[in-house]
Each structure stands twice: as structure tokens, then as C-alpha cells.
Amino acid sequence: MHTHASTALGHASAQRAPRTGTPHAATGRFRQVKTALTVFLLGLYYIVPWVRWTRGGESSQAVMFDASAQRFYFFGLEFWPHDLPLLLGLLIFSAAALFFVTSLFGRVWCGFACPQTVWTDLFFAIDRRVDRMLGRDHPLGQWAKTGVHVVVAIFTGFTFAGFFTNIVELGPQFISGQASIVAYVTVGVLTFTTYTLAAHARENVCLHMCPWPRFQAALLDPESLVVTYQNWRGEPRARARVPLRPEIATLDSSAYIMPRVATASVAGSSAATTYRGDCIDCGKCVSSCPTRIDIREGLQLGCIGCGLCIDACNTVMERIGRPHGLINMAPELSSVGGCAGKSGRIRLFRAKPMFFASIMMVTGSAMAWALATRSDVNAAVEHQRQPPFVKLSDGSIRNDYTLRFSRLGVHDSNVEIRVEGLDGAAIRLSNSAQASFTQGARRSFSDRVMVTVPKGSVPKVRVPIAFVITDRETRAPVARLETYFWGPGGVR
Amino acid sequence: MASERRYDPVTGQYTTGHQWDGIEELSTPLPRWWVISLVVCFIIAIIYAFLYPAWPTTKTYYTGLLGWTSHSELAEYQTEARAGQAHWREQIAANTVGDIAASDDLRTFAVAGGKALFNENCAGCHGIGAGGQQGQFPSLIDDDWLWGGTLDDIYQTVTHGIRNTDESSRQSEMPSFKDMMSEEEIAATAKFVLAMSDTSVSAETRNAMPGAELYTNNCAGCHGAEGEGMRMMGVPALADQIWLYGETEEAIRNQIVRPKMGSMPAWGGRLGDDAVKMLSVYVHSLGGGEK
What we know:
The complex is a heterodimer.
Chain A: H1 8-14, H2 29-47, E1 52-55, E2 58-61, E3 63-66, E4 71-74, E5 77-79, H3 84-105, H4 108-113, H5 115-134, H6 141-162, H7 167-176, H8 181-201, H9 203-209, E6 226-229, H10 231-234, H11 260-268, H12 284-287, H13 308-319, E7 327-330, H14 351-372, E8 377-383, E9 390-391, E10 397-407, E11 413-420, E12 426-429, E13 436-439, E14 445-453, E15 463-471, E16 477-485
Antiparallel strand pairs in A: 1-2, 3-4, 4-5, 6-7, 8-10, 9-10, 10-14, 11-13, 11-15, 12-14, 15-16
Helix pairs in contact in A: 2-5, 3-14, 5-6, 5-8, 6-7, 6-8
Chain B: E1 7-8, E2 13-20, E3 23-27, H1 32-51, H2 70-94, H3 97-102, H4 104-121, H5 123-126, H6 151-160, H7 183-196, H8 203-207, H9 211-218, H10 220-223, H11 249-257, H12 268-271, H13 273-284
Antiparallel strand pairs in B: 1-2, 2-3
């Protein structure tokens, strides 16, 4: 194997201060994707609360978690607390999707979509813009940066609060001091965390706070695409004026697998110290890294897979007239000339990704099915057990039940209750002689329901019955609730 | 031993300057933020000890500059809760029980409040579900009422109670017939009374019974010719299927000889008028309420 050429930068990287501030900007394909995704995700976050949706004839917010009413609105959908299993399904699906993507492409979530990455990237962009405008050593530079950081953080906190309350009203209320204490606390906390995490903690969150990097190794397999420094091509590192190793001089671009001929020569070139590999040790890969790691040391916990070092290195390779791909997205083994698959190609259908894909399929289809067949009615009936039955003066027997009924949607429900499975039973609500009621939209109805059976037809013991709720306008059945009617004999 | 502090390039730290046989000690102080947090915690703890009750004294305790107690906090929460209900309580106070029951919102509030009050004050005798207790306390959820089942009747009964020292309390008394009737006569009367509620016994058969005349002479004055009872006086109906003190002949005989009569405290003075209104609406909603 090669020995590392001793260079000035080798020491420099070991002596790097704990925080380097803003990394150097890189340009290239990964940077473009990252910028596009950052703009898209931030746009989604900041714009979505402002989207309006007509609900029940009045304009309201398209996406809102109404904590006080315990409702979640998502455009045309409305969720109640009893829909919580759907959230569980969504979380399992999301986790499986995250594992799936990780097993194929490494930590693209960390590098491109994680809120910490997205906001940090935004704050990096602010820092660079301020540096460009004022010059790097301007005495007011840090003040300007902090000022913009704080404004963005406040706006972020405000937007977050806007997901939980009417954001259009929140603005004026917030400024005039009319907003609720909860709103101020929410905005305050989110402003604080955004500012602290994106302006100060930055990569330290990924390196020291986040649990996700710790078990990503378990999700990767030998064919996962990860950011890889092609050791066989880059070593030994030296200044550009040192002549290139002859066996790699004819590489074509895009080859991430060591050519057979190269393998042979590397193995026998122990005295190659007078030659250099493709790496000219310019340090651009390190200085552009948002987590300030040296990717040339191999795959490591600190790498978030953003690919900015690839962009930085490709730019340099272009400048010195060498093919791209000294650092690229490739299976880890390729770095030392190994190849992952039997044919040297990366298979898509591999055990790990397919396992996670199957979990996605199962939870995804289960959720879709649950959402499609979701009942818009939430009704429950509970038999009163104290006492289980009441004897009336004419000898008839009455059972009392508590009925709870709520229905999604924007219209009042006019419904009627019938009893099935009990001869001669009369049913009524506590405050009327009838068994029909109107449940106001967005309210839940609860009342005592009384079922009376005349003396002659009273069942001796407990018998199963059912409440059938029908819509009085459409005559359509709305719900069927099974329960028991207790005769004087009790349970047999 | 001591030498110059120097920068150690391997760890990126400075040394303390201490050196033993060439082994140097690195200076790795606690992070500044950590030390500051610790100091701030101490300062907060000291301030806290002055503001809040923190120190016992020989007989009592230091009450703190803020005068905080868990009781005062509870009182604060209660005041807050009452303020939140004020709108409803005002309306409860301003309206009659009939008006409260007629308004959907007020009724919902009264039933909820009444339920809590009932479980706290009434359930001890009448049971959690107001089902009563056979032989002692009447059920409040059936349609048989001793003193009447309209809202106003219930309100009156709850406010002033039954057979107690309250001036407006419901009062009545059933005499003992022990010395007025012979044992045979009592037994015959009990048989007749039992037959009154037996729907399988025809009127002719019943009127031919020896107890018929005894009942007309001794009982019908209060319990009614057909055993319909008299609510003005809290006289129970005898022709229905509900027997608070038992539906056997022996139980009825006992009742003729040694009449049991329930009593109930007056709740108006104890709970206040608003609470009694809510209680009345709640009891009325349990299934037996009459218009």
C-alpha cells in the first residue's frame, strides 16, 4: 500500500480549530441539487401555512394542527384524535423510506433533507453573502450576519406557530401583544433553537447530538453508494509539480472501479514516492465540507453524504486537466480497488433495500386502505351499569345508555336511532320523547339514551341488541353499535 | 517540574506546564459554558431560597418573600376556574329550573355540574347512578315519585328536604295500625294491597277479598281508592310495580305495623341555590323526569 506523502496540509488538517465557521462554497451537480432542494423545502415550510382552503363555506387554513379543538386539517382532509393510528402508519412508513434510501444512497437524508442541514445551509449562504458584500474582515461583518440570522430565526419560529393557529391573524396579534402566551412561548422557543442550532451549533449537531449517524452503518451494505475517495487513484498525494503515476495517466472519467492494469501496477509499485496520484492535496474537499471532515480518511461517522467535496474536487480535477471522480458516489470497497457486486456492477435488488421497500409497501398500502375506507363517523354506546336496569311503575324495564356521536365534515347531521333485536322496545333521549337528534357540525353529541321494554316482552336475562343510527334525510345507515339489554335476571 | 505552557499539536490543547520525567499534563478545563451554567444554577438556588418557603424554623417555617403556598396556588386555580364558569353560573342564577332545562346549552352545563354535585352529595344514599337502595332510599331514575317528578317538585324537595327540621320541609307521617287493627285484619289488608298491583287479578276478584273493605276504611283516605297514592303528602302509590320497602306480604304487614318513612336533609342552605338548580336538572334528566 501507499504511504501518505507528508505535506504541510496534512499537519494543518490535524490542527484545525474546533469550528471553522462557514465552509467554502463548492460548485457542481451536488451543489445544484442541494440548493434546489433547500429552496424547495424552505419554501414549503414558509409558504404552506399561508395557503388558504375553503372549509364549510368559510376560508380557513389549508394545513393546520388545531390543538384546542383536537383537529388536524390537511387541505380537504380532516383528522380527529381517533385517527392517530394513521400517524403511526405514517411514521413507520417514513422510517422505512428513510432506511430504504439510506441503504441505497447512504445518508442523503442527512446531506439534503434534514432540517438541521437545510437551515444550516441557509445560514451558510447568508454568511457567504455577507462576506461577499462587506468583505471578509469587515468589522461589522459578524453583526450583520447575526442580525440576519436572528431575523430568519424569528420568522422560522413565527411560521412554526402558524401551523397551529390562524397565521393571518397571528401576525397583527403577535405585534400588538394580543397573541396567547402559548404563541409567544412557541415562537420564542423555535426562534431560540433555530438561532442556536443553525447559527452556532451547526455541524456539531450532526457530530455530537444526533443519534441517526450512530446506527447508519447497520443500514449500509457493500453496494450502498457513499461518498468515497478513490484511494487507488489519489495516492500518494503530492504537489501538482510532482509527476503523475504513469499507470493512471490514461484513466477515462466516470470509472470508479480500478482498471485491471492499474491493479497490477499498484501492487508492484512500492518505490513510487517520486510519483504522485491524482490528489494534489489542495484541501478543497476539507474546506468545503459542512462537517469539516477529511473524506480521504474513508467513510466516517461525520460524513453526511452531501457530496459537496465531490463538487469541490471535480472543479479542481477540471482545472488540472484530470477526469472527474477522484471523490465520487460509489460503493465503499471501490476505494481500494475492490468491487462490490460479482460483475462489478451495483445491483438494485439487494436484500437490505428490498426488505425496507417491502415494509414501505406494506405500511403504505395499509395506510392508503385505511384512509380510503375511513369512516366519517365516530360513535360509541356505553351501557349504564349503575343500576343495570330500572323497573318502571307499570312493570316495564328500562336500560340506559350513554351515546357519543361525532361526524366529520361541515354539515349538521340529522340522525335517528333505532333498536334492533328487542321486541316492543321504545327508545328515547333524556330530554325528549323522540330518538332523533341533530349534531352540529364540528361538535360531538353526547346524551343518555333510554330503551324501555313493556312488561310482557321483557327478556329474562341479558340479550344482545344493536343501535342503528340512520341519516334522516338520506335514510342511509350511518352507524351500527352493538351492546346488551339487561333483563332482571342479569347475565346468564 | 514546572516548565512553559506550550501548545500540543497532537491534541490541539495547551499543557499545564507540569512535567514529570518528560510526561506532560494537558490542560483540559471544563467548558466555559458548563462552568457558567453551574454558577448560574447556584445563584438561582440562592434567590429561590429567599423567594420561596425553603427553611424550617423551630415552630413554623420561613414563608418566602413571595408568600407562595400550594394552598394559595390552588385557590388561584379555583378562582380562575370559577371565572371561566361565571358566564354560565350567572345564567343558572338568573333562570328558573324550567328555563334552564329548556335551553340546550344551559341544560348541558347544569347536567354536567349536577352530576358532579350528585356524586359528591347524594350518591351516598341514592347511589352513584341514582338507582336508590331497596328498602331504604328511593330510586330517582324510575317514573315513580313519592313527592312529584316535575322540575319544580324536585327543586322543592332538594332545597328543603323531607321530614327534617327545615320549616318548608316535606312533612307527612303514616300512623301505625298495630293497635287499630287485629293481626288477621292486617294480614287481610296486606293481601289486598298486594293484589292491587297484581295485574293478573281482576277487579271483581279483588273487591271480593276480605281486605277490600278494610282498605277502603283505613287506607284509601291517603293511598287513594285505587291505590294511586297522593304526592302532595308523599304517599306512595300501591297499585304500581315499585315497592321501596319490599313486595312480599310480610314486608307490607311490617309496613302497616311499623311504618318506615324516609327522611332527607335540606340541601338549599348547604349547597346554595345554584347548585340545587343544577342538581334538580340533573336528576330530572335521568329518565323519570315529568313535564
